[in-house]
Design a protein that fits this description.
Elements: E1 6-10, H1 17-28, E2 32-34, H2 41-48, H3 55-74, E3 78-81, H4 87-93, E4 101-107, H5 110-119, H6 130-136, E5 144-147, H7 152-164, E6 170-173, H8 177-188, E7 193-196, H9 207-214, E8 221-224, H10 227-232, E9 239-242, H11 248-257, E10 266-269, H12 275-287, E11 291-298, H13 300-306, E12 309-314, H14 316-329, H15 348-376, H16 382-397, H17 400-408, E13 412-413, E14 416-417, H18 431-442, H19 447-460, H20 462-472, H21 483-516, H22 522-528, H23 538-549, H24 559-581, H25 587-599, H26 606-617
Parallel strand pairs: 1-3, 1-4, 2-3, 4-5, 6-7, 6-9, 7-8, 9-10, 10-11
Antiparallel strand pairs: 11-12, 13-14
Helix pairs in contact: 1-7, 8-13, 15-18, 15-19, 15-21, 16-17, 18-19, 19-25, 21-24, 21-25, 22-23
Bound molecules: NADPH dihydro-nicotinamide-adenine-dinucleotide phosphate (NDP) and ribulose-5-phosphate.
């Protein structure tokens, strides 16, 4: 482990060493010690009798403190209040490497300190000794000098800003797509930053230093490819943000960091880590008294630069200390509140981000299907489809994903649309699949999201799809259609599916909150998703205000939503029927329709499933005409 810094607040009696020392220790979250508590009894009696101590009296006292300083240095550091008036006393106290000792001298006039001492009661030090203290005082040399004729808050701020001149308040590891944007965002908010990127011979050389040189103001950022120097450049307790790829890289970086960290330091993992991995990391780091904030960040490269949506979960102490950086760089909602909020205990931040991405997967698939049917059933060009999407935006369906899809359709390469040049195999990094696994574990239905994952999987078997299409020779039909009513139905189907998808995503959040006892505030989660993130939309604004009134109700049961669904659901069924008949796969639109029809059916087909289970496996069933806690088995063959 790295060594802790000892901050020694010194000056004559009455200068405020104890008050300032305690406050500074609180700010830095390290222990406070008063040198007076280490006096041998003989010294206390001598001082109480009004006799000044001589250097022989002081020697065992200073030696005892010097030994304590060595101990505190191997732990997480400390703040010490000590008169230390003479240079030789200060030399005795400097029992550890100089770099770990910060001397802070409290400077006040005789009159000011005398008036403060007069106001003191029950203290063994008498005002008459002040003169000898001033006589003994040898002026400080290169120490931090703080004038005490101001409030305690101002004194602490001054000490902190002076200490901060040679340290950064925040460290960021990983200057990839997200790391670079977040670093620029943090700099724009005037935070003092150290950045680190690994060195890989001939591949990754001086990445951080080059990044620093590209910035307009290089005074507030320092770049490193040496991890120890990076850690040493940070103010303690440290806050270090990781923006590296999820999975093994996160553990590798944490393992490399650990030898240099001290207790109370905080690591923020801003990548898309799996929530269970975050839970494990939190436990492992808590054993070393290091805080961990598993933090979902959404907004892509541009969002990270201009203001993402941020979902931190984990140590509340760490959030209280380091959350200010995240809140400052996050996007702002319509009321100018930060789109960053403390989500809940360990793992919850990354769970919420995972569900965000699950909703994102289904919204993307919905847009892909909508584009596909407009292009190949309704025969629209990319430009016409872009215009249709824009008209939907103007009608109130505004969402980031709809906007970028409308935009990307206009991109050309020579005479061609770029969209036609892109291979139809969708990639994925896992968050959609993780959401599906979580839903299976928690027994939640997640059809729109899981079907979007499956659609990406099927898209991946491109060569087999080509072979199958040649064997089956199915053709899609594009009968002459009534443009206006088809596009109007599609718009309604799009809205209905999007509502169903959000209902499904929020149900997963609700169930996780109950099972893991996270007490998720769903309205607040929807609020921080109204800006900065990939799934920001008008619908999210509505969801946030609906959930504000009732955190427990399923979305599809809110009267406002019921009204919207009632006027759109027929169009959804209509579009799915038409599309499937015409030979188009509508994975998410169908999944949403099926979910909705099951969800709104008082009588489902599951009685047949129960009868089958009991028939072949004696799994028992409940009856509609008997109490719910009674189970029955039938001998079906007789
Ligand atoms: N891109 C996006 O839109 C979004 C991404 N995320 C998440 O943010 C995280 C970062 O993503 P992104 O910036 O896009 O990824 P990049 O691939 O652009 O950058 C990854 C960074 O991690 C570093 N890194 C990788 N492995 C190691 C290692 N073993 N030791 C040290 N450093 C390592 C890389 O260093 P080097 O340059 O040396 O390889 C690089 O700086 C991921 O978890 C991602 O899922 C979250 C929201 C949006
Ligand atoms: O988190 C994100 C946005 O919110 C990322 O863009 C995410 O990595 C996209 O996921 P995938 O690559 O699986 O499509």
């Amino acid at each position: 482990m790295n060594k802790g810094v000892i901050y020694i607040i010194y000056g004559v009696s009455g200068s405020g060493k104890t008050t300032v020392g305690r406050a500074l220790a609180g700010e830095l979250n390290i222990p406070f010690f008063d040198a007076d508590d280490f006096h041998p009894e003989a010294n206390i009696q001598k001082m109480s009798a009004g006799s000044p101590l001589n250097d022989i009296d002081r020697e065992p006292w200073l030696q005892k403190i010097a030994t304590e300083i060595i101990n505190w240095n191997t732990d997480k550091g400390a703040v010490l209040a000590c008169s230390a008036l003479k240079k030789k006393y200060r030399k005795t106290l400097e029992s550890i490497d100089k770099q770990y000792v910060k001397w802070i001298f409290l400077d006040g006039s005789f009159d000011l300190i005398a008036s403060r001492l007069e106001a003191r009661e029950n203290h063994f030090f008498k005002k008459t000794m002040l003169t000898s203290q001033f006589e003994s005082l040898e002026p400080p040399e290169n120490d931090i000098l703080i004038k005490i004729d101001k409030s305690i808050d101002k004194i602490i701020n001054e000490i902190k800003s002076t200490l901060d001149t040679d340290t950064s308040e925040l460290g960021l590891i990983g200057l990839g797509v997200m790391g670079k944007s977040l670093a620029k965002n943090l700099l724009s908010k005037d935070f003092k930053l150290s950045v680190y990127n690994r060195h890989v011979d001939q591949i990754e050389v001086d990445v951080a230093k080059k990044f620093v040189l590209e910035q307009s103001d290089t005074d507030t950022i320092v770049g490193f490819d040496d991890l120890k120097k990076f850690v040493d450049s940070l103010a303690q307790p440290r806050t270090i943000m990781l923006m590296v790829n999820a999975g093994k890289p996160v553990d590798l970086v944490i393992d490399e960091l650990l030898p240099y960290l001290s207790e109370e330091d905080c690591i923020i993992d801003g990548g898309n880590s799996h929530y269970k991995a975050t839970l494990e990391r939190s436990k492992r780091l808590a054993e070393k008294r290091i805080h961990f904030l598993g933090t979902g960040i959404s907004g892509g490269e541009e969002g990270a630069l201009k203001g993402p949506s941020i979902m931190p979960g984990g140590s509340k102490t760490a959030y209280n200390r380091s959350g200010k950086y995240l809140e400052a760089i996050a996007a702002k909602d319509k009321k100018k509140n930060s789109c960053c909020t403390y989500i809940g205990p360990e793992g919850s931040g990354h769970f919420v981000k995972m569900v965000h991405n699950g909703i994102e997967y289904a919204e993307m698939q919905l847009l892909a299907e909508t584009y596909h049917i407009l292009r190949f059933y309704a025969g629209k060009t990319p430009v016409q489809i872009s215009n249709i999407f824009n008209s939907w935006i103007n009608n109130g369906l505004k969402s980031y994903l709809l906007e970028i899809t409308s935009d990307l359709l206009l991109k050309t390469e020579g005479k061609d649309f770029l969209i036609d040049k892109i291979l139809d195999k969708a990639g994925q990094k896992g968050t959609g699949g993780w959401s599906t696994n979580a839903a299976l574990e928690l027994g939640v239905a997640l059809p729109t999201i899981s079907e979007s994952v499956m659609a990406r999987n099927v898209s991946g078997i491109k060569s087999e799809r080509i072979k199958a299409s040649e064997i089956y020779q199915f053709s899609t039909s594009s009968n002459s259609i009534d443009d206006t009513s088809f596009i109007s139905d599609l718009e309604k189907a799009f809205l209905a599916t999007s509502i169903i998808n959000h209902h499904i995503g929020f149900k997963l959040l609700k169930e996780s909150s109950e099972v893991y006892k996270w007490q998720l505030n769903l309205s607040e989660i929807a609020r921080i998703w109204t800006n900065g993130c990939i799934i920001r939309s008008n619908l999210m604004e509505q969801i946030s205000s609906l959930l504000l009134d009732n955190n427990d109700t399923s979305l599809l049961l809110f009267p406002e939503i019921v009204k919207t669904m009632k006027s759109n659901i027929n169009s959804l069924s209509e579009i799915v029927g038409t599309g499937l008949t015409a030979g188009f796969s509508l994975t998410v639109l169908s999944a949403a329709t099926n979910y909705f029809l099951t969800y709104t059916s008082a009588q489902s087909s599951a009685n047949i499933i129960q009868a089958q289970r009991d028939y072949f496996g004696a799994h028992t069933y409940q009856r509609v005409d008997k109490p719910i806690d009674e189970y029955f088995h039938t001998n079906w063959k007789n």
